[in-house]
Each structure stands twice: as C-alpha cells, then as structure tokens.
Amino acid sequence: MNNRLKVLRAERNWSQQDLADRLGVSRQSVNAIEKGRYDPSLPLAFTIADVFGLPIEAIFLRNGNSE
Amino acid sequence: MPSYKSPAMQRYLRRLAVFMVIYVALIFAVGTVFRAAPPTGILAWGVAVLPALPILGVFWTIARLLAEETDEYMRQLLVRQSLFATAFCLSIMTVWEFLQNYEVVPLGNGGFGAAFFWFVGLGFGGVWNALTNRSEAEE
Prior knowledge:
The structure holds two protein chains of two kinds.
Chain A: E1 2-3, H1 5-11, H2 16-23, H3 27-34, H4 42-52, E2 60-61
Helix pairs in contact in A: 2-3
Chain B: H1 7-36, H2 41-48, H3 52-68, H4 72-101, H5 114-138
Helix pairs in contact in B: 1-3, 4-5
C-alpha cells in the first residue's frame, strides 16, 4: 500500500518524531509506514487521518497508485 | 528487545531486572543448599525447582510486554523476535535430541536447557530487529 505520509509531513514541516509524538507511536513506526514496509491497522490509519485532518483515502493509496 | 523505550518496554525492563536478581540469588542459594545439606523427598523437589520460577517469571514479563505494548509496529517486531527465538530453540533441541538418540553426543545438557537456547534466539531476533530499524532509517 502506498501512502503520502512523507509529503504531508513535509508540507507541515514535521519531522518523523513530530508525527510519531502526535500519533503516540515510535519514530520507527512512522518510518516503517512511510517507507511502505508496514501497513498500519485501521485504528492507526484513522488516527493518522485525524492528525492530518484528511480522509484516509487522501493519505493511503492502493499499490501502483501514487496519486 | 528494541532500543525503543515505551512505557510497556520500561515496565518489561524493570520486571526483567527483578527476576534476574532473584534468579542469581536462587541459583547460588540452592546450589549451596544441595552441596551443604542436600534435601530429600518432596523437599528436594521444592528446593530444586526454585531457580526455575524466576525463569518462568521472565516468560511472563515477555507475555505482558506483548500484551501491553501499544505501538503496533514495535509489537509486531517483538512477536517476530519471539517467533524467531522459538524456531531457533526448537531447531537446536530437535537436532540435539537426534544426536543423543543415536548416541553421537552424550546424554544430558550440561545445564544448557531449552530456555537457554530460547533466550539466545531472542538475542539473535533482537539483532535482526535492530538491523531492520537501522536499514529503514538509512534509506
């Protein structure tokens, strides 16, 4: 699953640690999700969406879909 | 276990330290008792099993860590680490058992039982997790 975490983070000038603190997870978790090595659970995906103030589908994309 | 220190990980480390202190104290105390005045009968069973109890406590601390860790990615790494330890331990013990069955190696384990190899496997799994996090950070 692709995601726009890195772009959204950059738009807000947040480091991985900043986002991790907002989500209540480790920086390693943010890094793994950002790199596409770990797909978050639905509750964590909703929390990420809440933090960015966007719907989930604006953050997470199907494989092969980068937009 | 990973270097990440969540509240659950901090509790795990505290519990682990307590059980390790108890284990070291008991292993020396029970050894002294069996050398000085070996107990017999049911008392021997009770005293001999004492050093095993803190090891069981360590297994409990690991179970609590997996239950209490709220960071799902780190929990996944911990589960992978535990599964690696289990596979490592079972592999070693299975090969060892066949070597003993055919009398290629002597009976007995010289004090290195299943728990020892499980913890060695847990250490290797921890190294694997650390390398995973490091390689992701460097990308």
